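Before a colleague's protein record goes any further, I have to sign it off. What it holds is a sequence and that sequence's fold in token form. Would you go through it and say whether the fold makes sense for this chain? The record follows directly below this note.
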Amino acid sequence: MSSRQPLVSVVLPVYNCETYLYQSITSILEQSYHNFELIIINDQSEDKSKNIIKSFKDKRIKYIENKKNLGIAKSLNIGIKQAKGMYIARHDGDDWSKRTLFKKQVDFLEKNQEYGLLGTWAEIWAENTKTDRFHKHPLNSLALKTALLFDNPFVHSSVMIRKKILDVVGLYDESLSCAQDYELWSRIARVSQIANLPEILQIYREISTGVSQTKKDEVAKNVIKQNIVNIDYFYRAQNHKQAIRTFANFLHNNCKTVKSPLDFNTYKKIINTSISNIISQNPGIQFEQKEIQNIVKQNFKQAKYYYFRHKYYYLARCYEIVIRDSFLSKMFN
């Protein structure tokens, strides 16, 4: 690779990000690691985002403006297709990165060629206010592959991807308007090792206009769907599909549509089989049994909480209806 060729391509989709965009772009351009290009895809923003982007004169910036609003998945894929680097770094217009993020990720990926996806821990802010909350997801590959059976254990705007992995698994699924990162990480995890760095190198901002707030139901639907796909893939059996769907819905608090009871013993066998298959597919990869057990325990605890809350709420409603009907019957008879 020539000295002029960037090693890292930062892909930054932008749609109405004027409030935090300047800080986000600045945090990229001020990275201690310099050999990167910054590809900004303006998805027909209706605010001052374009003016903010154009105010930067850094030659590493490559500006793309969509002719119409295409959504995040298509915008990301446009940026990735234009990327010249060996690594794709994701960034969002409302988050910002610590100065050493790229350097530490490049160092890791250069030393560990078997890894195709690398994230970091993140500090959570509510708009402009620091909170006492953090995203501290699992670190090692097998723990993360286990966690993917239940949910998304990566902060999207913190990840760096080995680009050649995308040649194998494909790009973001453009049919998904949200949770497309969970779907892509799941495909990458089947052909590559994955990791998180045990350091807070990203500030993740919760904002009222974010997808996680404006499309809560759709996010939950897509996460549940991918949850089921991941377990099906590693369980490798046609039986117990209803048990898998039931557990996934309770795990993510989608209880109203579930009609089947939750059989924890059956589901425990399904998960144990899935984890055994994950381990057998990754010979030689070190892991801590206790960490994997804690991941399973935490998710089972969450599913049980929503299950019993829903169950007793239903019973309470039935009791309330019986009492009400009895009262009305006495009143009018």
Summary: Strands lie at 8-14, 36-42, 61-65, 87-90, 96-97, 115-126, 129-135, 160-162, 193-206.
